[in-house]
Amino acid sequence: MSVKVERFSSPGKGNGLRAVSGVPAGGRVWSAAPLAACVSNTLTGEVCSGCFTRRASLRRCSQCRTAPAGVGSVHKRECVCLRDLLPRAPTDSVRLAARILFNPHGTSEELYTLEEHERGLSQLADMLQIYLQPEVPDLMEEMTSLPPSCQDPLSLLAKVACNCFTISDEELKEVGVGLYPSLSLLNHDCRPNCVVVFEGSRLVLRAVKDVCPGEELLISYIDTVSVTADRQRQLSDQYHFTCNCQCCGTQAMDGAMLCGEESCWRPLEQAHPRLEGLQADSRILPSGSLLSAAECAVPDDNVHKLRVADLALDACVNLGVWGRALTYGLKTLPAYRRYYPDPHPAHGLQLMRVGKLHHYLGNTEEALDLLRQGYEILRITHGEENPLTRRLSLKLEQCRAEIRPS
Question: What Gene Ontology cellular component terms go with this record (predicted)?
Answer without folding.
Answer: nucleus
